Amino acid sequence: MFNALSNTARAEDRQMQRKERADDQIELKDVMAALSQRDQDIKTFAEKAGEEIKSHGKTLDETKTILDGLVKSGLGLQDRLNDVEQKLSRRGAANEEGEKSIGEQFTDGDDFKGLAEKGRGIARMRLKAVTSITSSTTGTGGVGVAIQPTRVPGVIAGPERPFTIRDLIMPGRTASNAIEYVRESGFQNMAAPVAEGAAKPQSDLSYELITTTVKTIAHWFRASKQVLADIPLLQSYINGRAIYGLKYVEENQILAGDGTGQNLLGLIPQATAFNNTLRKTGDTKIDVLRRAILQVRIAEYRASAIALNPIDWADMELAKDTTGSYIWVNVQDGGQPRMWRLPVIDTNAVPAGNFLVGAFNIAAQVFDREDANVEVSTEDADNFTKNMVTIRAEERLALAVYRPQSFVYGSFTAP
User: Fold this and answer.
1) 10, 334, 339, 372: which could form a disulfide with 395 (CB 3.0–4.6 Å)?
2) Three-state SS sequence of 274-327
3) CB proximity list for 380: less than 8 A, separation 6 or greater
4) pTM surpassing 0.90?
């Protein structure tokens, strides 16, 4: 009687486990479908982000917000997937033998039942020899192949620098491979009050012809067609990083290109050196910037922005008065990065300890010959025979600095 009740209880327990396992299988299917839909949504918006980068040079805020939301939702789905897989793993395999303990397998075996009925004989059960249970993938006790790693969805991107220098400069376009402009090289103003009938004074005005050539910035990646077909998000990701690579070098070139070879001649090499006679004893970094703005103003232009290194900007924001209060910033709400009414661009393209102040909006101009673009081709080397593709990103541009006196570059530290 006891054995019959025990067998009935075990049967009911196994039936309950099968029902729970079936429910887990349904939940697993739902989670996998949700993850598949999430991946499709990411692909759609990643492609949209690629188009926005081509059109606007960056991903629009709305698209970036949606992509961030999809990634976060994917993390939640991944947690649900892990929970379901762990529950299924605890419940064991689908066959009933996997659900029974060794004792249950022995008492339910034909040998044991025959022994119980006849009252004589030998009951045997053969079990596979198992060594120590480890996470190894080899040996009789290795279960490493059953351990599934947790895969974080998407691709973890590297750090990205926000690009703002080009936004300060007057834009332009060209259909040529060079830009020529006439720049005033000297002006001796001899204008003066003149008596009636007296000879008028002569002023001198001279010009020079400046030529700046269009430069190419480019790089490329190689990938297999199979990988790009199997991971649709990957090509959009590569395209985005390709454009980012161009913009990164572009900003460095606009600010600090030395003009040799295929380098642009940037703003810093053409800027006027800071006039150290304007310094006063005890000047802080904030004072030095105001005096640089004065130097631009003396040159009859008005500064429109300040570019400096993030380290120096942090020093200014952390400056305190004698009472320990911050001088320049309200810590609670921060605020727009501005100094002396001008926007501040903190970028690693400017060396620490130095600054650039200038009339970015009118004293220089960037000309685009070809906008940043990404092209994919199989017609490169042995790509066709190896099922590979080459992904190339390229842009062509020129930089014209009309009035070097309107850019002032110098060091915060007195020589």
Assistant:
1) 372
2) CCHHHCCCCCCHHHHHHHHHHHHHHCCCCCCEEEECHHHHHHHHCCECCCCCEC
3) 390
4) no
Q: pLDDT value at position 14?
A: 67
Q: Which residues in the chain come in under a pLDDT of 70?
A: 1-14, 57-58, 67, 70-72, 74-79, 81-82, 84-148, 150-163, 184-187, 230-233, 235, 330-335
Q: Residue 340 — φ and ψ, nearest 5°? A: 50, 45
Please name the amino acid found at residue 224: S
Q: How far apart are CA 30 and CA 41, in angstroms?
A: 17
Largest Cα–Cα distance in the chain?
148
The alpha carbon dihedral of 110, 114, 115, 120 has a sign of negative
Supply 225's token pair: 């067609």
Measured between alpha carbons, how far is residue 378 from residues 227, 350, 390 in Å? 14, 39, 6
Nearest partner of 411 among 355, 358, 348, 339, judged by Cα? 355
* Topology, domain 165-193+201-411: Major capsid protein gp5 fold (3.30.2400)
**Hey, what amino acid is at 240?**
G
Q: Which helix (H) or strand (E) holds 55?
A: helix 2-56
**How many Å apart are CA 9 and CA 97, to the nearest integer?**
16
CB of 141 within 8 A of CB of 133?
yes
**Listed residue (357, 396, 158) closest to 274, CA to CA:** 357
3-class SS at 390? Answer: strand
Instruction: List CB contacts of 280: < 8 A, sequence separation 6 or more.
Output: 287, 291
Strand-pair partners of 222: 390
Both tokens assigned to 263: 């380098």
What lies within 8 Å, CB to CB, of 45 at 6+ separation is 63, 66, 67, 70
